[in-house]
Amino acid sequence: MIKALLLVLDPAGGWDTIVLTKRSWLRILLGYLVPLWLIAFVAGGYGLVHWGKPHGYVSETTRFSHSEALIFEILELGLMFVIVFVGARLIKALGETFHGRNTFTQTFTVTAYGLGPYFTLRIFDMFPGVSSWAYWAVWIVGMLLSFLILYQGIPRVMLPDPPHAFGLYLTSCVFLVMVSGLARFLTYWYLAGKFGKLDALITNLVANVPLLQSFDKFHF
């Protein structure tokens, strides 16, 4: 989280440090992304259990059980993995259209650190009032901050030819908006009650998996 904030405050200096460190994509995943995601995981789960969220067609605030919150947050964690890996692959393919020869580690670095502000702001999803327009405001602000730091990051990490640098930056931002926006949309639709079959599946899991039933006995 601190690294994401420092990148917003000093994008050039932050990216220079990242380039000099030369971490592999696996180290970035385990050392940077997973801790960042787990903070939002715990905060989101706490908010669902203690304050609830508008859920279903009637949009009444519903407090989730511990097991339901756990499953919901695991699904969101899976979406975060998809956003980063699909985003990195898309940017790698995009770089080749601009005559670049970038490695997956380079594009993963750009995607992971570039989306750091959005992943950090997901902590605010824990509050019950973050729904409808406010729910999307978290995503919009996070992506705008991501655009700000990607402007400095893409030229430093991917090293495109100067004539292609801005085009690569702009289209990379568009791809990340599409991928992250789709994931956000799926989460929003679930909370709006659009995925009745998924609700039923989660209910069946809670009713038939003893481990989940025992998890509901904990209080935090």
How would you explain this protein's 3D organization?
It is a single chain. Strand 1 and strand 2 form a beta hairpin. Helices cover 77% and strands 2% of the residues. Helix 2 (11-21) packs across helix 7. 34% of the residues are buried. It is mostly helical and 220 residues long. The chain has a two-stranded antiparallel sheet with strand order 1-2.
The portion of residues forming beta strands comes to: under 5%
> Averaging pLDDT over every residue, what do you get?
86
Please bin the fraction of helical residues: over 70%
- Number of helices, counting only DSSP H or I runs of 4 residues or more: 10
Succession of helices and strands: HHHEEHHHHHHH
Cα radius of gyration in angstroms? 19 Å
Number of domains: 1
Largest sheet: 2 strands, antiparallel
Poorly predicted runs: none
Which strand order spans the largest sheet, edge to edge or round the barrel?
Answer: 1-2
Summary of the model, kept short:
This protein has 220 residues and is mainly α. The protein has helices at residues 2-9, 11-21, 25-50, 66-97, 104-114, 116-121, 132-158, 162-191, 196-208, 210-215; strands at residues 53-54, 61-62.
Fold topology:
Elements (H helix, E strand, L loop, with lengths): L1 H8 L1 H11 L3 H26 L2 E2 L6 E2 L3 H32 L6 H11 L1 H6 L10 H27 L3 H30 L4 H13 L1 H6 L5
Antiparallel strand pairs: 1-2
Helix pairs in contact: 1-2, 2-7, 3-4, 3-5, 4-5, 4-8, 5-7, 7-8
